[in-house]
Amino acid sequence: MDFSPLAVSCKIAFFSTLLTFITGVLAAWGAGLTKKAKPVLDSLLSLPLVLPPTVIGFLLLILFSKNGAFGAFLSKTGFPLLFTWQGGVVAATVVSFPVMYRTTRGAFDQIDETIISAARTLGMNEFTIFRKIMLPVSTPGIAAALILSFARALGEFGATIMVAGNIPGKTQTMAVAVYTAMQGGNKTLAFRWCTVIFAISLVILLLMNIFTERFAVRRWYK
User: Fold this and answer.
1) What own/partner pairs with CB < 8 Å and gap ≥ 24 does 111-120 have?
2) How far is CA 74 from CA 56, 59, 68, 94, 127, in A?
3) pTM of the complete model beyond 0.85
4) 16, 22, 45, 175: least surrounded by Cβ within 10 Å?
5) Contact between 172 and 8 (Cβ < 8 Å)
6) Closest Cα partner for 163 from 69, 110, 94?
7) How many angstroms separate the CA atoms of 31 and 165, rounded?
8) Contacts of range 5-10, beta carbons closer than 8 Å, 24 or more positions apart
9) 153 CB contacts (<8 Å, ≥6 apart)?
10) What distance in Å separates the CA atoms of residue 195 and residue 198, rounded to the nearest whole number?
């Protein structure tokens, strides 16, 4: 059994989660600062959550093709994204971004507004409030969002196969390997990969639950 799809999936999920963490947390903070535009901004940032992954993959394919605005620029610089594992990272990031954004925004919304108001009264600027108050208080929610985003990126199929393709050893992820095995009539191999994905997903969810519960207990005793 070739384990390269596992390595490719983990690589794509790791870098995707890193990008999603940075962009998702900053977007959740920025959305909270724009009260009037928040409903519209929230809808736009959450759109990948309701769009079919194949639609997202098609739009990214058009955007990063040689005839697209970004694709032409990337081709000239020698960094094409289509049919590379980096393209898989972009696809997984777009798909998992709403998970990070909405979960983090929910954690920020749970913060007592009087604490934020008191910080502003003491002369703290918005970025200092974000760094010293919002991030530490929202650690459990952000950690949960981080784990869920990783799991979402790890199991991504539709957008990834359209942008990164299905190149064994380079862009073939575990989800794509299941599809390929079924297309080839190899149900045994497909079942093995399903078992691997199931086991990894279960471990990820268990770690998330253990972390959030322990953090909640520590905060209660403090």
Assistant:
1) 111/137, 111/138
2) 19, 16, 10, 18, 33
3) yes
4) 22
5) yes
6) 94
7) 34
8) 5/172, 5/173, 5/174, 5/176, 5/177, 5/193, 6/174, 6/196, 8/85, 8/88, 8/169, 8/170, 8/171, 8/172, 8/173, 9/154, 9/173, 9/174, 9/175, 10/154
9) 12, 13, 16, 17, 20, 92, 93, 95, 96
10) 5
Phi/psi of residue 186, each to 5°? -95, 80
Distance CA(157)–CA(127), nearest Å, equals: 37
Helix axes 4-33, 85-109, angle to 10 degrees: 40
By the 10 Å C-beta count (0-12 exposed, 13-18 middle, 19+ buried), 81 is classed as: buried
Query: How much of the chain is helix, strand and coil, in % rounded to 5?
Result: 80, 0, 20
Q: Is 211 exposed, middle or buried (0-12, 13-18, 19+ CB in 10 A)?
A: middle
Mean confidence (pLDDT) of the chain: 88
Helices and strands (H and E) in the chain: how many: 12, 0
pLDDT of 58-112, one tens digit each? 999 888 887 777 777 777 777 778 899 999 999 999 999 999 999 999 889 888 8
Distance CA 218, CA 205 (A): 20
Both tokens assigned to 192: 């093995």
Structure token digits, residue 183: 């297309």
8 CB-side CA count, 13 A: 28
| Contact between residue 23 and residue 171 where contact means Cβ atoms under 8 Å apart | no
